[in-house]
Amino acid sequence: MAEIERHRFDVLVVGAGGAGLRAAIAAHDAGAKVGIVCKSLLGKAHTVMAEGGIAAAMANVWKEDNWQVHFRDTMRGGKMLNHWRMAQLHAQEAPDRVRELEEWGALFDRTPDGLISQRDFGGHRYARLAHVGDRTGLELIRTLQQRAVALGIEVFMECTITKLVKGDGRIAGAFGYWRESGRFIAFDAPSVVLATGGIGKSYKVTSNSWEYTGDGHALALEAGASLVNMEFVQFHPTGMVWPPSVKGILVTESVRGDGGVLRNSEGRRFMFDYIPEFFKAETADSEDEADRWYEDKTNNRRPPELLPRDEVARAINAEVKAGRGSPHGGVFLDIASRRSPEYVRRRLPSMYHQFKELADVDITAEPMEVGPTCHYVMGGVAVDPDTGESAVQGLYAAGEVAGGMHGANRLGGNSLSDLLVFGRRTGLNAAYAAARLRRRPEVGDDDIRAASEHALAPFGIEGGENPYAVQQDLQEVMHNLVGIIRTADEMEQALTDLAGLWERITRLSVEGHRQYNPGWHLALDLHNMLRVSECIARAALERTESRGGHTRDDYPATDDSWGRVNLHCRIDGDGVGITPEPLPQMPDELRELFN
Amino acid sequence: MTAAVADAPVAGAVPSFQVTLRLRRFNPENDTEPRWEEHTVTMHGTDRVLDALHKIKWEIDGSLTFRRSCAHGICGSDAMRINGRNRLACKTLLKDLPLDKPVTVEPIKGLAVLKDLVVDMDPFFEAYKSIMPFLITSGNEPSRERRQSPEDRARYDDTTKCIMCAACTSSCPVYWSDGQYFGPQAIVGAHRFIFDSRDEGAEQRLEILNDRDGVWRCRTTFNCTDACPRGIEVTKAIQEVKRALLFRRV
Q1: Is the ipTM of this complex over 0.85?
Q2: What CATH topology corresponds to B17-119?
Q3: Which of B61, B72, B192 would you mutate first to test chain A, the one with the most A CBs within 10 A?
Q4: CATH class entry, domain B122-142+149-247
Q5: The pTM is what?
Q6: Longest dimension (CA), chain B
């Protein structure tokens, strides 16, 4: 076999979004030799699209805010299925992570006193999101990218990992290919950090970018780790529904945080009809109270438009189903009648341009049409909360690819803070573990040969399946049968259909050669997308209740006995097996916060 | 060539059109020179150039290669030369282009073409790195955030909007003829720090841009400002950097 390009690192980070970059910076600062591998160009990762802000109890705007309140909001938003320890660390450390970004030069909107300003978001008791207009993700990724440049961290751009390699029962490194040349590359690294983001490209209507093919989820699963909470997929309540070419593109929650309201075709603010018992005590029950809350949070309760995302998405779905939707199958999101054009353009410039340019709608003058779009997967690699290490020694995960932190539903703004808090923790611990290791396993020639053969398989088949057609069929299956509202019959059908797709991907064929061949890249990504889709469908079928981002039409109630278990997915033979495991026990001093 | 499809549109339906795309293609494994290739596809009036490229890739030729990621103008992956002008394919609506003749789509200029619409971005990233695109400060790390007034913050807001798509740099005639020139994006990147009230590295950055391949090569053609999909006043930013250099000497 021909020699392939090889590199040695202490810590290899897969993915260059917020979590990957923060992990790489932490590992570098801990003295490790670090490499970052990313599928796209540096700075293009999905983090760049985050709009609203970074949730952190800095108390710059509301002095009543503190980590305990943030922790409580996060757990309640996640319907108590979160790993309490992750939610605790997240709430405690997020403010320092924001200040550190500021120290590294990030731009933030400021209060009149020059402090970092914070805005309101769904599920957060106080205005808590540090932000810059509605381009917070862009500034976050740029700041981390700049930091990585300043530290001289090595980046392998447009390079995709297809296999994690083990030796001596632990991680030894990883194997992948350069997108440009199609040539293979192997990395020897005793610590590998997965920071590959999510899975949204398995769904037809999604706010996610093309990178979101569940690579890290599948790599970890196949290396022997377990995935937790995979049945919980977040459908963001407000995606664009019109025109068709941009269906699914995100409309930031900041529109509602800054005063926008949802109305049905009759002009009614319907969210008042959908306040669940669980949130009644803290949600306004009249429009007057809701409107007063923006100015006076002490004496008024939150508007129902700012309930957690799962609640709002289900309500929109129900309104459309009841025939009270907008002309293109969504509902109306109205900020035009509630805030001045200057305010809207200053606070939400990207939204203003997005609607003006793509939908020919002036959001300062008319309402937007919005509906749910697949946005985020709560499920991911089960990790130790303090270190980010998975069940596979040397394999770490941070950010969206990791599971546990957000339970059954993620609050807006908690993703960017998650990336920073756990990116840093994971990077540090990956570096420490590599330094402690006495003997490093090597990536073996046999492993490289097997991984190469797997990667080249689609070139050996002529006249087979078109990978683009298979991807479209997969997206239909997941959208129609394992989407926002689920039933047993449909999910069983989905599993049958997925088995058919598994069979079809063994017959994929690719035109042309290895140099920058997008058809080939997709053929390899499809394997990961199918793995993840199967996990979602199996876990969703198993959980016979409705909770957070998992809604069963045949089991509409939340069931307390299901509130005590997380479902774990592991490889079982050729497929995926599901095991219920008890929820980690929260210590009493934290439990008291919920009384 | 524009022809409304015969079927009467149902309520809320989007009218569709036949659109011909004239693509500049290059496959290093078979071609010695780039070549033109035309495809005609049926598209909706609300579709973008990116949608037409996807349709060709998914249904006609799976080897068509271009970069794209977020698909709504935030990540800056799909800058292309569309009808001779640098734009993002995901933000260019077909209905805004003259469809009575083919829409030409070429890779951005001044950077080596790797395949089809994909260019080598390494020189672009090198130029970006060379202006030290990170905050430079001295003294102890602050225990809380540094204060910055809304006015000081507004001073450099415009240049923080950059998405590094290279539309400006690859629209610059000076950059086309001399790849040593830093190009507009790198100067925008420097501006973002030079005018940040927290930064203490302005002197070093200005010295780099005072170089013979630096800011003085700019001929103020405004191509970069026209090309920027974020509406950044690129030429103005470059002028501000020039002025900072002049004042420093006064």
Answers
A1: yes
A2: Ubiquitin-like (UB roll) (3.10.20)
A3: B72
A4: mainly alpha
A5: 0.95
A6: 72
